[in-house]
Amino acid sequence: MSLQGQSKGVDLPALQEHLCGLWSRKEQEELRQFLKSSFTQMQEPLAGLLGFLEGCLTVQRGKSSTLHQFILSEFIRWRTSNPQASLNGLREEERLRLQKKALGLLTDSHPGYMDPLLEIYQLSSLKRPVLLEHVDFLHDCCCFKEALMFSVKVELQKDLDMEKMCVPLILLDKLSLAELYVRDLPDLQQRLVSLLDSWCEPNFNMQALLSQYPNVVLSKHQMDQIQPKLLSKHVFRLMEKFCIDPGLCSNSVYKRKLDSLRFLMYKTFGEKSMSEENWRDHVQAMIEGNTELQIQLVQLLVKHCSLQTAAQWAAHYNLPRNRLPLGVWDKIQSLSRKKQLEMCFVSGPPESWTPLQSDMQKYYQLPLPRENVLFVESLDEVELCREAVLKPGCVVGIDMEWRAGFGTVSSQRVALIQLAVQERVFLLDLCAHAISHHSTTVNFIRALLSDKNILKLGYGMSGDLRSLVSTWPELREEPMKMEGVLDLLHVHQELQRCWLGNKGCRSVEVSEGPAEKGLSLLVQQILGKPLNKTEQLSNWERRPLRTSQLRYAATDAYCLLDVYLILSRDPKAFGLPEDLRSIPSAQLAKSREEKKPKEKNKQSKRREARQKASEPHSMDDCLKMTSEYKGPTITPPELRVVCDNMLQGLGRFLRCLGVDVKMLENTDDHKVAAELARAEGRVILTAGQPYQTLRSQVGEGRCLTLDCSEKARDQAVHVLRHFHVHLTPADIFSRCQACNCNEYLKLSREDMTRMMKERGLLQDIVSKRDDCEPQDETQAEYNSCRPPEGPEFTPHCRWAPRTALDPQTFRFPSGAEVQLETVPPGLLPRIPVYFICTGCGKVFWEGTHFDRVLSQFQEVLHVREDAATKA
Prior knowledge:
- This is Exonuclease 3'-5' domain containing 3.
- Residues 373-572 form the 3'-5' exonuclease domain.
- It comes from Cyprinus carpio carpio.
- Residues 585-619 are annotated as: Disordered.
- GO terms for molecular function: 3'-5' exonuclease activity; nucleic acid binding.
- By secondary structure, the protein is of the alpha/beta class.
- It folds into five domains: 3-244; 250-342; 364-580, Nucleotidyltransferase, domain 5; 612-726, Rossmann fold; 743-870, no CATH class.
- Strand 7, helix 33 and strand 8 (660-663) form a beta-alpha-beta unit.
- The longest helix has 23 residues, at 547-569.
- It is globular and about 100 Å long.
- Mean pLDDT is 82; it is low at 1-9, 58-63, 499-513, 586-596, 609-628, 764-789 and 864-871.
């Protein structure tokens, strides 16, 4: 019996045609009334509804609002006043037939289509074999999403194969649906996380997995998502979300720890911003009991440190001889037993509260004696701290420290809270059992943070507060209202957007240490010197804390008071509002959210700003002077400049274009720029307030100020145009970006291969590829696809003779050694010629970056003239 026959007196085909006509004409009110009237006239409205849906299911499918959705919503509305339209009064066979018909409409349906049918036709009441058969049918039709959603809504997860249901969707980059599938089911959650972790195994075969799902077709983006780096992040997130034991995810934990180990090696032996004592603390805790990580450590020590240190660690962990890098076992045999066991753990002399003289010259110093820094570890001392801090009108600098969780899932727990007031700093030891979770301590911090009469200063306080809530769960159960808090991070963000915020641009690493950032950069900009961050990643849970840790912790909190004091005295001088607390706290997040969608608009605004020379900001005279340069056209090597330490990014771009550039180090005073300019006849490039001081120390037209809100590339174009620089393709990469030298030695592939073999750099290509650090941006893949009519890479530079390189030491007369370790072994078969800087030993080769630079500076590049010159 047809549905049409069951709805006596109703001509369904005619009704369906009429419905489609009304819908296409967007006559929704008339359509609504027509449906209401039709449902009322039907003797069996449930059968009639299915007839309507069958007739219009293929009409306008895929649109945000479809006819069948409209019909369903109107039926539900009509049924509220007609409750008799249900399955309850029907015979069992009729009821079952309608339910199966409704099931058939769920294939590849709209998201909003499933729930109404499930509710109207009570589909969850069907027998489980029927439901499971329908899930299989959906899956066989490649309706993976619909199959999963249906099984979740009728609670079939325990009767289905989790991998069969979830893997196709994970491959299609829909992991969130798999998470929905295992919600509130701990066993399935564990299996899902273990599945993802198994894909992080080094020997995981992606093609073997795909062969099990031949109907799943992946795009390039979806293929890129199935890689250990991204998968391990999901594993850690889900481990925390589902409270999964990390021991069940050995592959992801191993990868995270190995990445952390490489990071620690870089921080200690590359960047040199972490002490070896801190490094040892973290490394020992990380690799304990894991032979594979211990072997990786020894390999990294051979590369970054020394053979002796690697041998000492290998001896300490008694690693098997056949797993050790070349030379390590022989070194172990040559060491005395005492040397083998000490691992260079030589205790130094007791630390003095007064830092080294070199550190005092380079870094901001805490202006307090040791006795004014109080370590709080008892309730009596907490009460003393409370009395000193909880005073109306008091200004308090707040910071917190916790141990970095390398390779762990647990939330970071605060180990130390620093509270700085004028002339004193209190360090609350949250590792001391007497006070760590005592209500006196918790209530004290709660009262401090919620007191609007006490100004609390911090930098990036959201991270501190997250860790504090993880430490004290009662703060989550009874949330506190934050009052009287000034986050200097938002002040810093505003400062860097202002023309008057001196040193507004973050510098780029070109010298010994890393570029300053965060609070250290703010302290450098306002107080003249950065913070010493050597102890930042130390073990803050170890007791007793070292003197250097105590000094660092106190300094981090006290510097907030000094920064605030300077800014609050004359905020207008920095382009800030009178009331620093009026700067919105959501400003940073908002700017980040708007950055990407507004990038094009932002660039167009910058172009307009550069064109409007008649609209200066607050430094009209200097902008006027910079637009009056009347010099002749010059070549890039003839332009000799010195970049202030806030324009190091610009300096690197100009070197890339062949300009002779000296760059100040992060710790250099601005007067160094003036001294270099006078001694070597250079032009000073600067930004912000230092311009006024520097221009008075050099000749007219020898100091140019730039907008530090511009990108380095745009600044470089501005400089080239200002000084009428005639840029040709031969100028690009004619000078070393690292050291400014313009002399290269050209080496063939055969010579490079021989030198690397002599240094033992080609013995273990696989491990070298794994350990290879990111290369300089000039080291790109060889571009064999450049069109023949395009410019060739023939830099205008000085070429050193082959005899300039010592064949034994691989050193140049400058003392620089060829940096062979930066050349990936896999590059040798593809790159025929290498260029080595004689000033620093850096190795370059022709790659796609040359073409990118050509494209970036096309507007100021003279290609035809350059080609004519070469001809």
